[in-house]
Specification:
Layout: H1 2-10, H2 15-29, H3 35-43, E1 52-54, E2 57-59, E3 64-65, H4 76-79, E4 86-92, E5 105-108, E6 113-116, H5 125-132, E7 140-145, H6 156-167, E8 173-176, H7 192-208
Parallel strand pairs: 3-4, 4-7, 7-8
Antiparallel strand pairs: 1-2, 5-6
Helix pairs in contact: 6-7
Bound molecules: flavin mononucleotide.
Amino acid sequence: MYQLLIRPLFFLFDPEKIHHFTFALIKTACKIPGISFIFRSLYQVTDKRLERKVFGLTFKNPVGLAAGFDKNAVLYNELANFGFGFIEIGTVTPKAQAGNPKKRLFRLIEDNGIINRMGFNNLGVDAAIKQLKKNKGNVLIGGNIGKNTDTLPDNVIEDYKIAFTELHPYVNYFVVNVSCPNVGTFAKLQDKDYLLELLNSLQEINHNFQNKNPFY
Ligand SMILES: Cc1cc2nc3c(=O)[nH]c(=O)nc-3n(C[C@H](O)[C@H](O)[C@H](O)COP(=O)(O)O)c2cc1C
């Protein structure tokens, strides 16, 4: 059905528009009584053999949803119905930002691939927290954090500290994103000394929380 009908139909339209369309579709569908139950019956597999204990967390299975799909943490409760072992929200930056100019998402049809240069478009950490307060607790949530594109080099670590501190009570683990190639000035972050300074600053904050969150 997907290969024959839905995919060819979706591919007639701009990929970013289709992304937002499918978001709305899933959100709306899950509001219909019984639909979430049907999704869970179809897609959730409970099997001890699939469990993974990593960083002190128990993942129901090793298949998760990567960052970039639910950037603003608006759909993770519904996406949990599809059987993911974890869902990574973000990348979240301290302030909202529009990301790179459109068009910024391209299908490579022959290669079954996609090129993305979204540039961390997101509504900022406060908006993400507002959504995360509605967490039904059905899936582990990873918080993928980044810096704002317009942040000056001297303030970059501060950006990560803000996002880390604010999101800390609402996520189970963190991903510190220092590798996105399309938001500029990341090269310095990957220098060993700089990276150590960044990770040590975050670990310091982590130790001040009663529940420590792992990050990578
Ligand atoms: C449209 C799009 C947006 C993405 N946005 C982010 C992002 O905001 N932060 C991030 O860390 N990764 C982002 N990614 C990368 C994905 O998290 C993932 O690493 C990548 O798609 C490779 O995984 P895959 O082989 O399972 O697709 C994005 C990917 C795509 C296609």
